[in-house]
Amino acid sequence: GAVVSQHPSWVICKSGTSVKIECRSLDFQATTMFWYRQFPKQSLMLMATSNEGSKATYEQGVEKDKFLINHASLTLSTLTVTSAHPEDSSFYICSATTGDREETGELFFGEGSRLTVL
Amino acid sequence: QKEVEQNSGPLSVPEGAIASLNCTYSDRVSQSFFWYRQYSGKSPELIMSIYSNGDKEDGRFTAQLNKASQYVSLLIRDSQPSDSATYLCAVRNYGGSQGNLIFGKGTKLSVKP
After folding, report:
1. For residue B92, how far is the Cα from the chain centroid?
2. Any residues with CB less than 8 A from the CB of A91 and at least 6 apart, and which?
């Protein structure tokens, strides 16, 4: 399968600071990337859909001004958690798909980034 | 609200046995179904995908789909301790963002040596 890489794997920050998480597709061009969030013992919840060269589409209840998404190239999407608070502590996972895989819905997941806000 | 339901478990089976994982979904028009395995602290990895009614086999894994009953299952034959993980059922969401998946909360499987 295709390879999606996330960085950093772990990040600890102070409340009020901003954190950037990168998601890269290593061996394919990802026209669409998805950002998920997973709280402990909960399922993955889609936060936003990121399309290369256009604005991200946010799911209901996700603050677009707090979770900034940039998909400037076909291999890189970034998620910036602005003014992070302890309740933002979670496991953030990106996934990517190329256009020809969308019919199957086959997503390739990054390794995930665990954010802890103190 | 589209939902994917799974028994949270834990499901405990002895090594070598068959593990049966079940999932129901609420959106009748769903067409694409997936099983992911997630080890603790790791991101999900795709195990099986299934799109048509019936069975689909891949090695020790068999996915079963019954669209009329809105039911999808995963059988793991000859279970190994390394199969111990949380198994997530996912359904492609046609009404939402293009290509995104709706995940169940997962069933935790424990295979005892």
Report:
1. 13
2. A37, A38, A39, A112, A113, A114, A115, B41
| Residue from B33, B43, B91 whose CB has the most chain A CBs within 10 Å, to mutate | B43
DSSP 8-state code for residue A115: E
d(CA A34, CA B90): 15
The Cα–Cα gap between A42 and A13 comes to 23
From the CA of A111, how many Å to the nearest CA of chain B?
5
- Interface with chain A: mutation pick from B32, B97, B103, highest number of A CBs within 10 Å: B97
- Joined together, the tokens standing for residue A53 give 């060269």
| A:B CB pairs within 8 Å | 63
Q: Which residues of B touch A109 (CB under 8 A)?
A: 43-45
A112 φψ region: left (φ > 0), alpha (ψ -120 to 50), beta (else): left
Q: B88 and A93: CB-CB below 8 Å?
A: no
Q: What is the pLDDT along chain B (113 residues), one digit of tens a residue?
A: 789 999 888 999 999 999 999 999 998 888 889 999 999 989 999 899 999 999 999 999 999 999 999 999 999 999 999 999 999 999 987 765 555 788 999 999 999 99
